Amino acid sequence: MGAGTEPDGSSRSDEEWERFLRESVAGTADAPKEPSARAREVTRRLRTEPDRSAEGWRDHPPARPKRRVGGYAVGLLAVLALLFVALAPGRVVDLVTGSGSSRPDAQRPTTADPFRGSPAATWASGAAGITMPKEAKAVGWMSAAEVQRALTRSRDFLVASSLDRGVLRGERPEKAIALINPHQKDVQHLLKTAFRTPGEKSDPLLLFSRFQPSRAHLVGDIVKTRGALTYEEGEHGALEVTADVTFVYPVARTGDDDILRTIIRRELVLSWDNPDKVLTEPGTFSVISYKYDMTNGGCGTPTGYFTPPFGPSHDADESGRQVDPYDRDAPFDPDGPSGDACGRATRS
Question: Are residue 101 and residue 163 in the same domain, yes or no?
């Protein structure tokens, strides 16, 4: 855009205006006597500013970058701070709140909240945590309705053997035993000897969860559970039901408030046999297999009861292999929970 305008409407070039203004300042004889208001303003500026002809009067000198003292050091400290927060968020909370020494206590179970600090805190309770198949279909000799009834009774056995309050207090599991085929000789032998003279191969804990009242008791009325029942066709057209369930028992030493959680994962395979092919009784199943993994339940010579390691003995065996009792994808220990070396729970 031009710097000035002639009376006929044409524009003067910037060079002409610059020459005109410099001659006016210098007092040239033929300079015009009445410059415009714009000319007067530019004239005033030229008198007060140095000559920029070498630069070009419309050019602006580049701004000098500001020097940041210690900028790199500040950035490095910021990166280190973010890394510390990412790796130890709990420690940051402790530093801010001053609760570092009390943080472990905040995760300890109490009588009011026996599952505090446990992954099982969000699990369902009792039978609600044992998932049933969404739809029962006919299998082998059983109709869909009969399969549904057998699945329900299989879950009833889990409740009667591992959730019944009396059984947990060490009572004989009569309701659970009544669901087992009375003609299955090997299991019936186990049941006859296990409660009188517990041993490695005749231990009631193979099928039932029991605590000795003089040693430990269940805290509260809730046992947390997670697991499922599945089914398929077995031998001779039988309905074969597999139960894989984890039970979490908060227990305390009798006469004390020292609480820990005994965690048992069980796998049972039950066969609902065709009475035309296998000697059985209506409403009962045969036990094909049973196995379980245990943490915080004791080890060594079988006593017929879980023996939680309260007090100084808790996690005392540093040589024991580490076990995550909440890993439900891990295979069962082929040696079972027997033996002198206890597994050490990585979390409870």
Answer: no
How far apart are alpha carbons 275 and 288 in whole angstroms? Answer: 16
Say if residue 95 is in the same domain as residue 218. no
Domain, as residue range, for 87: 72-105
**Considering only CA atoms, which of 161, 169, 158 is closest in space to residue 245?**
158
Judge if 167 and 262 occupy the same domain: yes
Euclidean distance between CA atoms 178 and 190, whole angstroms: 14
**DSSP-derived 3-state class of residue 6:** coil
- Is residue 249 one of the residues assigned to a domain? yes
Backbone CA torsion sign across 180, 183, 185, 190 = positive
Tokens of 141: 């000799």
Q: Tell me the per-residue pLDDT of 160-202, one tens digit each, with 9 for 90 and over.
A: 999 999 999 999 999 999 999 999 999 999 999 999 999 988 9
Please report the beta strands in the chain, taking only residues with DSSP state E, as ranges in sequence order: 4-5, 11-12, 124-125, 130-131, 216-218, 224-233, 239-253, 259-272, 286-295, 322-323, 344-345
Q: Which two tokens stand for residue 68?
A: 């940041």
d(CA 264, CA 325): 8
- Going by the DSSP 8-state scheme, the letter that residue 178 receives in this structure is T
Query: Which residue type, as a one-letter code, is found at position 162?
Result: S
58 in any annotated domain: no
Do 88 and 156 lie in a common domain?
no
Q: What angle do CA 86, 87, 92 make, to 5 degrees?
A: 75
Whole-angstrom Cα distance, residue 134 to residue 218? Answer: 32
Q: Kindly state whether residue 341 falls inside one of the protein's structural domains.
A: yes
Structure pTM? 0.69
